[in-house]
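Schema walk-through. Below, the input block comes first and the output block second. Nothing else is stored per chain. Lengths vary across the set, and this one has 178 residues.
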Amino acid sequence: MREYIIISRGGQGGVTASRILASAVALEGGWAQAIPEFGAERRGAIVKSYLRISDKPILRHSIVKTPHGVSIFSSKILELVDINTLTPPGIPILINSRGRIEVKDRTVYTIDATGIALKLGLVIAGWPLVNIPMASAMAKVFNIASLDNIIEAMGEYFRGKLLELNIEAAKLAWSSVG
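--- output ---
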């Protein structure tokens, strides 16, 4: 079993990203859980989501304490959350950032998910929607699911022009994560 933590802000789509990833895993014949952790949050508040994947049925439903990877939907979250209290050293991190970021004792991958969302006009109420670029990058970096299955899973959540734009966002993120 592999487990992941997604740390986002309310309105960025972290919960939706975990659900799309779980759906993509199921399309590949695996088992998955997408578990949101939030209360009466508001736009901009820190929201955690958990993703658990396995090749067998998953019998427990709890928060993730020892993840195999962490995805951070905004580099500014690192100023608010001490990543070292969430995970032991050595756990790789994927961060939405325009530039490289160093985190002690971590392998760090970056993706400009905000730039992708802005380029494609994926913005609601002034907030770039980074969930699809981040989900696509997570799928690639952490070897969670194929791009084709991420795209197919998105069809459960989006339709029409929004689906088309999100497919383009997923492809751009997949090809540019590093």
